[in-house]
Write a structure and sequence with these properties.
Elements (H helix, E strand, L loop, with lengths): L4 H8 L3 H8 L7 H13 L6 H8 L4 E7 L6 H14 L6 E7 L5 H11 L5 E4 L5 H10 L5 E4 L10 E4 L2 H15 L5 E6 L5 H14 L6 E7 L4 H14 L4 E4 L4 H9 L7 E5 L3 H8 L5 E4 L2 H18 L6 E4 L3 E3 L6
């Protein structure tokens, strides 16, 4: 098997971008580093990819469309940061990204954005909404350009691959933690965002399926907050005014906010579990307002997905197919950096 650019970079102890600059004679590389890279290339009979050479010399950009949901949700700031870092690795190529961020999970806005991007981009990266019209539209687009899903899969679509976590398994992890910190006879409150957000519905399913093993723990009906901060806070307050819950499971996006709501009550022993090690959630964990966080590595998901699509467009490499799961990491206040 031929050596790859990534392997050359590792052997030379440099970044992939440095190897790219040597291969395409774009300078800005120390002579001794260039000599080492070329020696590795020669020893391993490496021949540069001609598609990459042609693109580097081209003035016509390739464009990646990227559609994310829930504008205003701080999690997607991690997605955008990962995207920008990945694109920076290919700054020497005429490749661009058309980043679209829609309101909430608005079906009509999402379809309108897909209509706009369909014939103006060379590849598409989506955070999916599991609605039949959207799946149908994506299947139509996938007939002529590659489609990848990121963070939220679009099952039953013709997307090539998905990069994210196994959300069902994440739900089972939440259930395991809930069992460990909740005694028989105690009550658990569960709040989720939207049934059309596939990642959240899978986490709910994994949680509820696993909690069937522990029938002595009382689980509330799922309260849907539409993934809106104010609504999440209002519904949580309303539930706590009616009843004490030993454990609160947050599958929507407002974990730190739940910690703030609970802090206004006299209860000192409520456990709160949820997702994403964003700054506000991390601070809530440090302060003891949150008990456990499951981290899904949004930055890494985005970086990997965008990087793979860039490589596909520039070098003709294969896109990852099927479900490509990242590790599920669990944090409490004792294992934070």
């Amino acid at each position: 098997m031929s050596i790859t650019i990534a392997q050359i970079a590792k052997l030379a102890g440099v970044s992939r971008g440095t190897v790219d600059r040597v291969i395409h004679n774009r300078g800005r590389v120390a002579p001794e580093v260039e000599k080492k890279i070329r020696q590795i290339m020669e020893e391993n009979d490496y021949h540069p990819n001609m598609l990459g050479r042609a693109l580097a010399a081209s003035k016509s950009p390739l464009i990646i469309g990227m559609v994310m949901i829930e504008r205003g949700n701080p999690f997607f700031q991690l997605i955008e940061a990962g995207m920008k870092e990945a694109m920076a690795q290919f700054r020497d190529y005429p490749i661009e990204i058309d980043f679209r961020h829609i309101n909430g999970v608005d079906e009509e806005e999402y379809l309108h954005v897909l209509d706009e991007l369909e014939y103006s981009v060379n590849a598409l990266i989506l955070s999916g909404i599991q609605i039949p019209r959207i799946v149908e539209k994506v299947n139509h687009i996938a007939k002529h350009i590659p489609v990848m899903t990121l963070n939220i899969d679009l099952e039953e679509s013709d997307r090539i691959g998905f990069i994210g976590i196994d959300d069902y398994k994440a739900g089972t992890c939440l259930a395991g933690l809930t069992h460990d910190i909740t005694r028989p006879g105690e009550d658990v409150l569960i709040l989720s965002g939207s049934e059309t957000i596939h990642s959240q519905s899978q986490r709910v399913k994994g949680f509820l399926d696993t909690m069937k093993l522990y029938p002595d723990i009382h689980i509330s009906d799922v309260i849907y907050t539409q993934d809106k901060k104010d609504e999440s806070g209002r519904l949580l307050t309303e539930a706590l005014n009616k009843k004490y819950f030993k454990t609160i499971v947050m599958i929507d996006s407002w974990l730190a906010n739940a910690g703030e709501v609970v802090s206004h009550y006299k209860y000192q022993d409520i456990n709160i579990l949820g997702f994403d090690l964003m700054p506000q959630n991390k601070e809530a964990l440090k302060q003891g307002k949150v008990t456990y966080i499951i981290e899904q590595s949004g930055y890494t998901q985005s970086y990997q997905c965008v990087h793979k699509v860039c490589e596909y467009l520039i070098y003709g490499t294969q896109l990852p197919t099927g479900k490509n799961y990242l590790p599920i990491q669990i944090y409490n206040k004792y294992n934070l950096d």
